[in-house]
User: Which sequence fits this backbone?
């Protein structure tokens, strides 16, 4: 028996299961000491400091076995549900095969197979893939590809867009909340107004724009463009030699009721960025999808064959997860279920719009859902609303999110900083039961807004105290 065989035959003294079982419950104390203590503070403030012990499908479970309906999905990662057995088995199979991994100076089988599988969905001509780890990394690469192909410097993106938080992607994330304290940003990164074709053409006319990048549906707020916007924007890009990039990191792989959201408008983007759902929720996985001629603009000579690279990008575990995820989406008809359940959710939620004066609008595509709130007309409610908004826009939405969690164990989030919008991204596996639980809970919580002395507004008072204390620099006692 060789030395390697002997080494692997020796029992290991590291027991991860035992470590988790003995230390579960210390989560927030550990993060307070060693990770992000500000996040710990926020989660404790809003009552989200739960200890989850396991997860399955559309549900999380705490240490007492109570279920929590997950309408957040890790910000859109869990389209196929949490801990899907098919993806889990694919990971086990990869480990059992003992495949060579990340040799780097080779062409591994699984990354080629994933490219082949994705090309069946991305449309004619878009069959060249670069694999990486995250949405922001995919966006960074897309910007480089666009500059290399066009020889131009400028990048246009939409106001209030979100494309990631690394330096290049943050430069085109024209959102003051995320950009604060990190400037100056990438030269040539400019914004255009949402749905404004005239401004877009004015900026394209100079002939110096490498790419126009946009989310098909803006994630921060779930803002949906007019039906003619993207088709005409794409035509303008073609006219002026600018590449058209669709950031499908959150919208892609079924989220909006089609495999890719750009398909709602019959678009033909030059580059697509993917991430989140491609991972199956286990191993980070992302991709840039483009045309061969654009791809070869980057890898243009033999000495430039790795001029853009990602150490972990084509690793076997990630590729296996991507293959398994695509299989599940197809076999379980999850894209079709998303379209069906999205219509069902919107119809049920629009009843709330007619019922509650607090509700301004309900909107969404597929299972990318938002409910926006407005100042009510009744005097006492109007005063309570104004009090919240003198402190911080978005506190009312946070009240709804927290109460929905505390009373109904439904996990959602505020759609963006300073917006009175609650957002939901449920897994595509949901059915009647999950929609009813969410909508009924939302109905009850919004209904409590009418009693300004009730528990909802008592919590709102705690949020106001916490926000004021933060602005003054004094320690706060939330819930006091």
Assistant:
């Amino acid at each position: 028996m060789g030395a390697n065989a002997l080494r692997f035959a020796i029992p290991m003294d590291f027991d991860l299961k035992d470590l988790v079982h003995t230390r579960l419950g210390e989560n927030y104390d550990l993060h307070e000491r060693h990770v992000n203590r500000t996040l710990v503070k926020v989660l404790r403030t809003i009552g989200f400091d739960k200890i989850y012990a396991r997860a399955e499908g559309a549900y999380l479970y705490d240490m007492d076995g109570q279920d929590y309906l997950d309408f957040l999905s890790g910000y859109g990662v869990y389209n196929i549900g949490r801990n899907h057995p098919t993806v889990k088995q694919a990971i086990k199979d990869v480990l059992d095969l003992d495949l060579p991994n990340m040799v780097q100076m080779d062409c591994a089988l699984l990354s080629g197979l994933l490219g082949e599988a994705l090309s069946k969905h991305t449309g004619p001509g878009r069959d060249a893939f670069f694999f990486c780890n995250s949405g922001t990394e995919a966006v960074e690469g897309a910007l480089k590809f666009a500059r290399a192909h066009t020889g131009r410097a400028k990048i246009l993106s939409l106001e209030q867009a979100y494309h990631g938080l690394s330096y290049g992607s943050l430069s085109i994330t024209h959102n003051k909340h995320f950009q604060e304290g990190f400037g100056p940003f990438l030269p040539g990164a400019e914004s255009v107004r949402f749905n404004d074709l005239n401004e877009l053409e004015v900026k394209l006319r100079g002939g110096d724009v490498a790419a126009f990048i946009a989310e098909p549906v803006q994630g921060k707020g779930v803002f949906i463009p007019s039906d003619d916007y993207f088709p005409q924007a794409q035509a303008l890009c073609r006219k002026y030699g600018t590449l058209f990039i669709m950031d499908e990191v959150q919208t892609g792989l079924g989220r909006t009721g089609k495999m890719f959201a750009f398909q709602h408008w019959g678009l033909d983007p030059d580059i697509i960025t993917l991430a989140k759902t491609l991972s199956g929720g286990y191993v980070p996985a992302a991709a840039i999808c483009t045309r061969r001629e654009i791809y070869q603009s980057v890898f243009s000579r033999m000495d430039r064959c790795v001029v853009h690279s990602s150490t972990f990008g084509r690793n076997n575990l990630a590729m296996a997860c991507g293959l398994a995820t695509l299989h599940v989406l197809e076999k379980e008809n999850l894209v079709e279920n998303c379209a069906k359940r999205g219509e069902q959710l919107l119809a049920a939620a629009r009843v709330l719009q007619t019922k509650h004066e607090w509700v301004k609008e309900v909107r969404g595509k597929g299972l990318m859902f938002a409910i926006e709130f407005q100042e009510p007309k009744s005097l006492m409610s109007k005063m309570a609303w104004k009090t919240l908004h003198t402190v911080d826009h978005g506190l009312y939405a946070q009240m709804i999110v927290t109460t929905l969690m505390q009373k109904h164990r439904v996990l959602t989030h505020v759609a963006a900083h300073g917006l009175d919008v609650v957002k939901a991204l449920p897994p595509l596996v949901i059915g009647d039961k999950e929609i009813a639980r969410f909508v009924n809970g939302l109905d009850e919580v919004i209904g409590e807004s009418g009693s300004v002395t009730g528990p909802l507004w008592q919590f709102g008072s705690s949020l106001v105290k916490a926000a004021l204390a933060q602005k003054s620099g004094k320690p706060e006692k939330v819930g006091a």
Remarks:
- The longest strand covers residues 359-365.
- Residues 475-480 have pLDDT under 50 and may be disordered.
